[in-house]
Amino acid sequence: MESHTPGPRFELLNHSMAGICYRKMTGTPAVPRAERMPLLRPSVLVLIVANLVPILGVVWSRWEVFPLVFLFWFENVIVGVFNVLRMLLAMPQHGLGWAAKLFMIPFFCFHYGMFTFVHGVFVIGLFGGGFRHGAPFPDEHAILQLVIEKHLTWAILGLAISHGFSFAYNYLWLGEFRRAALPVLMQQPYSRVVVLHLAILGGGFLMAALGSPVAGLVLLVLLKIVVDVRAHLRERQKLATLHAAPDQPKASHPA
């Protein structure tokens, strides 16, 4: 009689079943696929797709440096709006937290709003000619006019959808809001803005000096995606640590 050796599929199934049995016997939780391969997180994929939209503007609409840098600045406004929602919904089970929100949310709106506004004035002044004599002051009407003139509506909508999806999926559905601390949420957008826009502004000045080459602007968008994904994953890791802290078992000390 012929002897049949188990094939690779049988061995793979055998290993999988053994792993499941081991986790059940030892109580070891399965590692989610998103944690093993963080780039496959749904929010990361949506982020990447939304940030690829500006490449269409560079290639087909012939965007130069200013529309691109202005778009990335406008994203700060979107980040601020969703951060206010995060602060509002953070730790709803803590009664004292609501009292803290009465002070911290208006303070964040004022401070981050001024920070973003001054940043926007410099972006428009340095890249959009806003510092030239007779240029209009960049108020909300001038900003809206720039969005329309530079055809940024769809790109802004894509970024808003990306941040909205992350808010709904990570913060609400996965429960980050249950452990998110208000002080952490208050400072979180600043670190993202500083790191991201130092890289973007530096690249923007270089591209302006080179005459806004298409390949260079595409590389600038790709640089922004890399920095953004790293910041997004770092944010998820920080909030996951806050999740795990109350549930960690206490270390046992020998008597």
Question: What does the model show?
Answer:
- By secondary structure, the protein is an all-alpha fold.
- The protein has one domain.
- It is built from 9 helices and no strands.
- The chain has helices at 8-26, 33-36, 42-59, 65-89, 95-127, 140-149, 153-173, 182-209, 214-244.
- The protein is globular and about 55 Å long.
- Residues 8-20, 26-31 and 243-255 have low confidence and may be disordered.
Structure summarized in a few sentences:
This protein is an all-alpha fold and 255 residues long. Helix content is 74%, strand content 0%. The longest helix is centred in the middle third of the chain and has 33 residues.
List descriptors.
globular; disordered C terminus; mainly alpha; 255 residues; 74% helix
| SSE string, helices as H and strands as E | HHHHHHHHH
Backbone CA Rg? 24 Å
**Helical content band:** over 70%
Which blocks of ≥5 consecutive residues have pLDDT under 50? 8-20, 26-31, 243-255
Q: Structural class from helices and strands?
A: mainly alpha
Shape verdict: globular
Helix-strand blueprint:
Blueprint: H1 8-26, H2 33-36, H3 42-59, H4 65-89, H5 95-127, H6 140-149, H7 153-173, H8 182-209, H9 214-244
